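Q: Could you fold this chain for me?
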Amino acid sequence: MNRTCFLATTAIVLLMTGAASAQTAPEFPLPYDSQRGVFSFATGLERSLPAVVRVTTLGNSTGPSRDGSEPTAVSGGSGVIIDADEGIIVTNNHVIEGGQKFRVDLSDGRLLDAELIGADLATDLAVLRISAGGLAEVETVDSDTLRTGDLAFAVGYPLGLDQTLTMGVISGLGRSGMGDAVEDYIQTDAAVNSGNSGGPLLDSRGRLIGINTSILSGDFSGGNDGIAFAVPTRIMRFVVEQLRANGQVTRGRIGATLGSLTAERAVELGLGFVRGAIVEDVVPGSPADRAGLLRGDVITRIQNRPVANAGSVQAVVGIAPPGTALTLVYLRDGVEGNASMTVEVSEPDAVQIGATEIQAFGASFASTPSGIQVQAVEGGSAAAAADLRAGDIVTEVGGRRIDSLATLGARLDDRGNPVLTVTRGEDEVEVRIGG
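A: Sure. Below is the predicted structure, expressed as structure tokens.
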């Protein structure tokens, strides 16, 4: 059979399949354009494309300028209008970071100034507002309805090109471990490149399911290797609502330091699985403490969602407003248990002292044979902004020697904006938190 006959036969089979399916689900026929004789998703997607915009961030230039004060373009990316009446645009924090002014190019050629409503480091999301009539908006759907294998379309302005659409599939769900505080990424193989950041990830009907945020590249070129990540609408909605209402995001806490269950830890604990989050420490008097969680418990489900790693728990806690009741399923010595706790207001600058760890400024510290070591740093926290890093060994705070967790706790609690002296490899580094 030659190629032409094969394609014709395939088309007939697909059409017959679509006709048969139409008897049970006529509202969702096969996307076939009979007038042109082609299969196409254009009808659904074309409604959303006018809502996709180019975002240009203007800031201080390091090079010469005409008068030394006019801001110039320092970065750029994409964005998507989610509320046409109010001119609300969602993009990435890293697209607008460090900007003085923001410019938005619409698909119809209009060029508008935008106002920054707010940004959230922990999810890499930002909200802009423009004032204009005749705007289009994208329909948003619940990302929890996604399944691996669904078609996905990325839209944006990559590599200096005009608006570009690429197609792929949902390659995975609930991805974490990229270094941010709140991680529950959609993974797709739709081509995403520099300039796509902040643009929408759409389903086959043109509805918003996520905001394209980052790619995983196999070399230093930063090119597309078929692995891209998007913030799901489940998280986006929470962040956008808070930014629009308050200009910032207020998160809750449960007072537990968590680690991911790796193969090594599973063997150490005598477990036959590698999915879950290990409770490394519990802050006395915290929601986790009152719920009865103990060091060594392995959380396997939260709010009836399976837990793949520590990021899975943070993705739920991180978008739970204070006062939210959370239910957990955990394993302790091979026996399954249940716990319920109420999320409390997070105090990122407060010093919380547990049995074996201290949490402060978005970082956790523990005593190790090498000294007082930074165990983890939450993305978007004061510690992260100061460039404190996991693995740093704290030797001094405010010029005074640190030789125990108790000393560290006292020094951190005593100073509003502490200066930490840490050893990082062979270097000694000063880290000023806040201020």
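A (continued): DSSP finds nine helices and 30 strands in the chain.
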